[in-house]
Every structure is written in structure tokens, then in C-alpha cells.
Write a structure and sequence with these properties.
By secondary structure, the chain is of the alpha+beta class. Helices cover about 25% and strands about 40% of the residues. It has one domain: Jelly Rolls. The chain contains three helices and twelve strands, in the order αβαβββββββββββα. Strands 1, 2, 3, 4, 5, 6, 7, 8, 9, 10, 11 and 12 form a twelve-stranded antiparallel beta sheet that branches.
Amino acid sequence: MTPRLARAAVSMLVLASAAGAASATVTEYTDQTAFSASISHSTTFSFDGLTPPGTLSFGGVTLGGLSITGSDFNFPIVVGSGAPYYGGTAFFTSLSPAPGIFEAEVLCTLAGSNAIGFLYGDFADEGELPFTVTLSTGDSFALNTPLIPGSHTGFVGFVSDTPITSITFSDDGEGFDLLQVVDTSTRSTGVPEPAPWGLMATGLLAVAVLAHRRTVKVEIR
């Protein structure tokens, strides 16, 4: 292979590698049934049992390999079962001491998961409050809190072909709540695989054809 063709082959390898990095995909689900259908071997975590019924505990918590807390200016609290919210279900909340100045944030960190979902709500603010979810992948999603505070809940889930290592829920109100987490490290069937090797194979085939044509010309002379 001539130096010129060798450089072309190397270029194809670089392009294939770049295509693999650029093709990372995150799929958002707001329907829990559809999310569950796209994953396998998931584990569901709740906040039941972390705090005695009818009591509160301050500070962050760990569910499986997931660490959940508030931001630097928020108060992380676990509300035990029996409270007059969400039908008495235990939940985690992060309360802002200054709504509109400090955002109400819930910070989640984990070793890395290809699919994770959350049942969420907001008992301290009015309904339909905008909030954002930002992933370690750099993707950000805009949603609204459920209509009736402390009663209705919503769901959001993410499936990624790149492990998610952190998630931040953030609104500009007083508080934000998580009621349940569905986590799996198994790759989803709903996200297409990147195809860098297919691109590389096509490029190398083109290089081989060029090399063959160059050889034919030499033989004719």
C-alpha cells in the first residue's frame, strides 16, 4: 500500500472512531410503561424504610448505587410514610431556602447506568412549574411538575448508549420531590447501536478498490 493510500486508511479509522463518539444517543421517556418495555433486569427503589413512619430525616440518601442529595443551598429531607402527601408514600425532597434566588435541586450520582427512571412530584409549590433535568452526557430536558401538588406524580426516564453518571433535577421554586427510582445497567433494546465499524469497513473497501485500480494501471504500462 502506498503512503497516500495508507494515509487514507488511517483517515477512515479516525472518522470511524469519531462517528462512534458522536453517535451517543439518549432517549427520554415520560411514559413509564414505554420505558419499562425498553429495558430489562431493572431494579425499583423507593424511600420506604429509610425513615420511620411519621418522621423526617435530614441529609442525603443512597438507593442501591445511587446517591441522592440537594445542592449546596438546599435542604435534603426524607419524609417518612404516613405524611399527607402522595397517598402517604415516603419520598425525598430538596427544599430551597430562597425560592427564585436559589433553585430547588435534587442531585443524583451513580457509578454509571444505561437506563434510569424517576417518579417525581412537588408538594411545596404550585402545579405545572417548569423544571429541567440535566444528565452527565450533557443532555438537558424541560418538563413541568404535575398539576396537583402533593398528590399527582409524573415520570421521566432516560435510556442511553453512554453510561449516565449524574442527574440534576432543578426548578426555581421552593422544593422538588422524588418518590421512586427505576435503575438498570443493562443496555436498552430501544436505543440504536453506533455503527463506526460499518463506516470503517466501507472506507477500507474503498481504499482496497483504489489500490487495485492503481495496480492495474502499473501492469498496463
